[in-house]
Amino acid sequence: MKLIIGLGNPGLRYKKTRHNIGFLVIAEISKQSGIALKKKKYNGLFAKGSISGKKIGLFMPETYMNMSGNAVRSAIKGEGVLLKDALIICDDINLKFGFIRLREKGTSGGHNGLSSIIDHVGTNEFPRLRVGIGKDEKVIDMPKFVLRTFDSGERPLLKGIVKTAAECAITWANAGPEKAMSLFNKRQPGISPLSL
Predict the structure, then answer these.
(1) How confident is the model at residue 144 (pLDDT cuts 50, 70, 90)?
(2) Among the CATH numbers 3.40.50.12780, 3.40.50.1470, 3.40.50.150, 3.20.20.70, which is that of 2-195?
(3) Pick the catalytic residue: 2, 18, 19, 130?
(4) Rounded to two decimals, what is the model's pTM?
């Protein structure tokens, strides 16, 4: 089974903030696949189903971002999933808004959720899909910025970006990381290569 995990913060206060784009992508995958996230498990929302005949698990930790690692480790161990088969979806302030990057391993890049996961699983060798939330100008107050909602100019593009990121994650699960990276990395924001 492939496990797709979206990071974010629980509660209405954070629902539409930049830091919660991982949750938005998981919600889109759930919508596209019909795998409903209703079950409380591993300190989060969990569901299993299939997409194009492949077994898929979806997980949204309901811990706060900087405590994601324990819940993620529990889900991975509880479902008997190898680390290489668990994809983490998160925001990235160092990536320009709308761009997505799939990598098979890497550092946390200063992301508290990724740092927590690395601490709990003991390695940085797990795939991650980073969704850009950054600006052209330098962000002075990073914690405040990531907990803000998207700007009015960004909101019309958000749906397409989330949809494209969801399609990338599904492609990763069904066709493998190399195929997904070749299709989705370095693409124009919000335009899915599957629609071209």
Answers:
(1) confident
(2) 3.40.50.1470
(3) 19
(4) 0.93
